[in-house]
Specification:
Cytochrome p450; alpha+beta; three-stranded antiparallel β-sheet; five-stranded mixed β-sheet; single chain
């Protein structure tokens, strides 16, 4: 690798965001771990290493279960950001054992395969209605008209958020503002929006939890209320995480996936010709080929070694999912090729280890359903304008995807 890591890994560059894959290939060729000074992270580009480190308990999403900020050589977040961190730090994504083990076990009692199975008719009806609307209008923005409304409506239905509550319309903006904090080096303006959204969303959920305590229903919040060992804050953080993780990835996979299909007409033609055979592997391949979550971060709690390089305690590693999912060492010489019939496909899009995505079955249901509806109801769907990429790198997607049908 002739170029320095910071010259290859450029998460603020529109060109890099639009196509990070050549840079990933160079990083993989240059070694297994690269110190990147601008982000003060160790970049990990290989599938084998990313997969192993996701399961390695010497790393964690947090360090506060073992160290103070000072002991770990880190600065505590500003006091003004406290509402965001209270919300985020009590969610499964940013907890480690023993709290993570306890909460995941308790939440799993409510978020069961039966919960997802019960939602299937709702998902199918919502997807069909949204696609019908797109077809009736002769096209539109696949992002705003189909991809965004579907998972938000599904999560609202699952949580039991009444349709008459005005807050239902604020779920997507709240989520977008909170998720802004997961990008690299978020600005103070991003932090202010995240704090406001955290306060407003938490206040609404506490009020809704109080309603469900008095009059429980068949929804997930009622089920969580029935789990006595969960604190109210843990319930609130769980609900917010389910919304954020449960729709950001689905939205971007749907839109990025169709953008990918439209650039691979021979693969799209094969899928349209035989969706019953190809749809399930196609969804997995789309998740692999252009993963919506490009990077996942971990703190190094005890010294580790990767590729002969010591990564000391207190460091942060950036596990490059997008690179791992295109690694020829795991996916062979066709790693950069879209193959909707790919059977051996151990992509890392949903993570691995104790933080493996709890909502993966729901995401797969939504993706399969919306792709099926678009293939069946909009067989002539085609691109109307070249899309622009949003400035975010970690959660990566386009601003809009204008199509005609």
């Amino acid at each position: 690798m002739d170029a320095a890591p910071e010259d290859l890994f450029a998460p603020e560059s529109p060109g890099f965001i639009a196509d990070p894959y050549p840079a990933y290939a160079a990083l993989r060729a240059g070694g297994r771990a690269h110190w990147n000074a601008p982000t003060r992270q160790w970049l990990i580009p290989h599938h084998e290493d990313v997969s192993a480190l996701l399961r390695d308990r010497r790393l964690g999403r947090t360090y506060l279960h073992r160290f103070t900020h000072e002991e770990f050589g880190r600065q505590a977040p500003p006091a003004a950001h406290e509402p965001f961190h209270t919300l985020n730090d009590h969610g499964l994504l940013d907890l480690e054992a023993p709290d993570h083990t306890r909460i995941r076990r308790l939440v799993s009692k409510a978020f069961t395969p039966r919960t997802v199975e019960r939602l299937e008719p709702t998902v199918r009806a919502l997807a069909a209605g949204l696609v019908d609307g797109l077809v009736e209008r002769g096209g539109g923005d696949l992002l705003a008209d189909v991809a965004e409304p579907l998972p938000v409506a599904v999560i609202a239905e699952m949580l039991g958020i009444p349709e008459e509550d005005e807050e239902r319309a604020r779920l997507r903006p709240w989520s977008a503002d909170i998720c802004g904090m997961f990008e690299l080096n978020p600005s103070e303006d991003t932090a202010r929006r995240a704090v406001t959204a955290s306060v407003e969303f938490s206040d609404y959920l506490r009020e809704l939890i109080a309603r469900r305590r008095k009059a429980p229903g068949e929804d997930l919040i009622s089920a969580l209320v029935g789990v006595e060992e969960l604190t109210e804050q843990e319930m609130v953080s769980t609900c917010v995480l389910l919304l954020n993780a449960g729709h950001e990835a689905t939205v971007n996979t749907t839109v990025n996936g169709w953008w990918t299909l439209l650039r691979h007409p021979e693969q799209l033609a094969a899928l349209r010709a035989d969706p019953d055979r190809l749809l399930s592997t196609a969804v997995e391949e789309i998740l692999r080929y252009d993963t919506p979550l490009q990077m996942f971060e971990r703190w190094v709690l005890d010294d580790i070694e990767v590729g002969g390089r010591l990564i000391p305690r207190g460091s942060e590693v950036a596990l490059l999912f997008g690179s791992a999912n295109r690694d020829p060492a795991r996916f062979g010489p066709t790693a950069d090729t879209l193959d909707l019939a790919r059977a051996d496909n151990p992509h890392l899009t949903f993570g691995a280890g104790i933080h493996y995505c709890l909502g993966a079955p729901l995401a797969r249901l939504e993706l399969t359903t919306v792709f099926e509806a678009l293939l069946r109801k909009a067989p002539g769907l085609r691109l109307a304008a070249e899309p622009r990429w949003k400035p975010g790198y970690v959660i990566r997607g386009v601003e809009e995807l204008l199509v005609t049908v």
